[in-house]
Each structure stands twice: as structure tokens, then as C-alpha cells.
Specification:
Blueprint lengths: L3 E9 L12 H24 L5 E4 L7 E2 L24 E2 L9 H8 L6 E4 L14 H17 L6 E3 L8 H6 L4 E4 L11 H12 L8 E4 L5 E4 L2 E2 L11 H18 L2 E6 L8 H20 L3 E3 L7
Parallel strand pairs: 1-2, 1-11, 1-12, 2-5, 6-7, 7-9, 10-11
Antiparallel strand pairs: 3-4, 8-9
Helix pairs in contact: 1-7, 6-7
């Protein structure tokens, strides 16, 4: 029987992740901890267990300086936040920016255990919104592709911001081979009471999570749908870490037993604020994955490993 496969994916966004929803000092403090504490700690764990991961990076984070205007980009004006770059004041990254963090990207690519840089768009735009034109989608991907190339990698994988897909033809045009979206029930437009309750119960009582769904789309790209979300934000704060780790372990076992693909995804920001239990839980997961790999039962690959 072929071994199962396990993918670790981090959506690395800093302030771009939620600036259109929250932008208070508490949030910004956690964002700064993400770049100074969370990213280095995660890389240490990954390297200790020789695990590759996919870092889906908002392309703007790879800059060292910007003008804050971005006049070269077509407008993107979603109804809830019509001036998308109004909070990005530009300048040069002094190590404290919440919009740029090139030094952390350099740290990722210099990790002794190779890590993948993937696209998470240039400025965390929603690809499913009608306000995102095809040209702006192309610009978002092209700028990110250029930044990834500057670090010596090709843009093979793309993770849709907020899990919502669109403009697949543009992804194909720019060389993307595999992309990740959320389960349909996790989409913001459908994630209301019943789906949220279902997800909470599944995480609080560690049932075996479903393996990710893989499907070739009409453009020949591989769509990866789903995955286990690893976080302690919001209602997840009340879920014991032991339950969360047990659920992921069951996901790994399911991948082994069915020769399937299990995917764990998170944000480095999910490890800021109260990092000790999250980092300990993540290390336990990595130890288990490494053990299964040592036994020849599991392969640990980045997203591009599915292409």
C-alpha cells in the first residue's frame, strides 16, 4: 500500500490578514509578535524534525520598502473597505512593520530543511468578489510571482485568501499548478450557525477528520479542498490542546490507512499571544508525523509536492 501524505501549510499575512476587519493596538501587537517570535519558533520546530512546509505568503511582505500608494495596481474596492491601501503608509521596513517583513522571508528560505514559498496574493484580496477584476487578479499574482522568484523559487502553489476561489484562468496563465481552498461549508458566506457548531463539535470531541479532497480542474490544475485548521482563537480557546492534537493524530492515521492526504493549516499569528500551548501541540504533531515517516508509512511534502 502506498504511504499516506501529510502537508503543513502556513498562511503568512501579518496585518494584511484582517486589517479590513480589525485594526486596534491589541491586534497590531500580536502581528508584531508573529514576525519576531512565532515565525522563528515554528521554523525551529520544523527544522528539528526535518519537516518541509508550505508558507503561503502575502507578496507585499516580501518587500523591504514601498510608497504606500501602489498606483501601478488597478483599483480594488470591496463594499466593506473601498480604499484597500489606506492603512498602508509605505516607507522602509525597520523590523517593526506590519506590512513588510522581508527578513522573515529570508529566514524561511534559509531554513536548513527546505521550505516552499507559495502565493497568498499580493495584498490579500478576495478572489471571489466581483470587485476584483481579472487584471487586478493578474497583477496580484504577477507581483507575488516576481517576489518569490527573487528568493530563488518558482510560484507553483497558491492559497486563496479566506479560502475563496476565482480567476482560475489567471492562475493557470501565471504557472500555478496546485491551489488550496477551504471546504465549501467554511466559506464566509455560508459559515453561519450550523457549520460553526458542527466544526466546534468535531474539534472539541476528536473525531477523525476528513482527508482533503483533490480534483483536477478544467485548466489541469490540482485543487486541494479542506484541511485541519490549527488555532486557539475565538471559540477554539475552550478546546483542550490534547483534543486538538488527538484530532490531528487521527487525521495522520487516516492518511496512512487510506493512502490519502492529510493537511494541517494555520497562521503564524495563531501562535502569537499565548504561544506555549500552541507550540507544544504543534511539536507533538510534528513528532508523530516524523515517526510515521521513519516507519515508511507517511510522506511529508509541501503543496507543490502534489503537482
Amino acid at each position: 500500500m502506498p504511504p499516506g501524505r501529510f502537508i503543513i501549510c502556513f498562511d503568512y499575512e501579518l496585518a494584511w490578514g484582517r486589517f479590513d476587519k480589525v485594526f486596534d493596538e491589541r491586534y497590531l501587537a500580536q502581528v508584531r509578535l508573529t514576525r519576531t517570535k512565532s515565525v522563528p519558533s515554528l521554523l525551529e520546530i520544523l527544522d528539528r524534525h526535518h519537516l518541509p512546509a508550505t508558507w503561503a505568503v502575502v507578496g507585499h511582505l516580501m518587500l523591504h520598502e514601498c510608497d504606500g500608494v501602489h498606483a501601478h495596481l488597478d483599483p480594488y474596492r470591496p463594499p466593506h473597505f473601498p480604499d484597500w491601501f489606506s492603512r498602508d503608509c509605505g516607507g522602509v521596513d525597520d523590523g517593526n512593520s506590519v506590512w513588510m517583513a522581508r527578513d522573515t522571508i529570508e529566514r524561511i528560505v534559509s531554513c536548513r530543511t527546505p521550505q516552499e514559498l507559495a502565493s497568498h496574493s499580493f495584498s490579500h484580496v478576495d478572489f471571489a468578489m466581483t470587485e476584483l477584476t481579472r487584471e487586478r487578479a493578474r497583477q496580484e499574482l504577477e507581483l507575488t510571482r516576481q517576489q518569490i522568484a527573487g528568493f530563488g523559487q518558482k510560484m507553483v502553489s497558491h492559497v486563496f485568501p479566506r479560502g475563496r476561489s476565482g480567476h482560475l484562468d489567471v492562475l493557470k496563465e501565471l504557472g500555478v499548478q496546485v491551489y488550496r481552498i477551504a471546504y465549501r461549508e467554511q466559506s464566509p458566506r455560508r459559515a453561519r450557525f450550523a457549520p460553526k457548531l458542527k466544526q466546534f463539535v468535531a474539534e472539541a470531541w476528536p473525531f477523525t477528520p476528513p482527508l482533503v479532497e483533490l480534483a483536477l480542474d478544467e485548466y489541469g490544475m490540482l485543487g486541494v479542498e479542506g484541511g485541519m485548521f490549527f488555532s486557539r482563537h475565538g471559540h477554539r480557546r475552550v478546546i483542550p490542546m490534547s483534543s486538538r492534537v488527538a484530532r490531528v493524530r487521527k487525521g495522520l492515521d487516516a492518511a496512512v490507512q487510506r493512502s490519502g492526504v492529510s493537511l494541517l493549516w494555520s497562521h503564524p499569528g495563531d501562535f502569537a499571544g499565548n504561544p506555549t500551548p500552541m507550540l507544544a501541540g504543534f511539536e507533538e504533531i510534528c513528532q508523530r508525523a516524523a515517526k510515521l515517516r521513519e516507519m515508511g508509512k507517511l510522506e511529508i511534502v509541501p503543496l507543490r509536492g502534489l503537482a
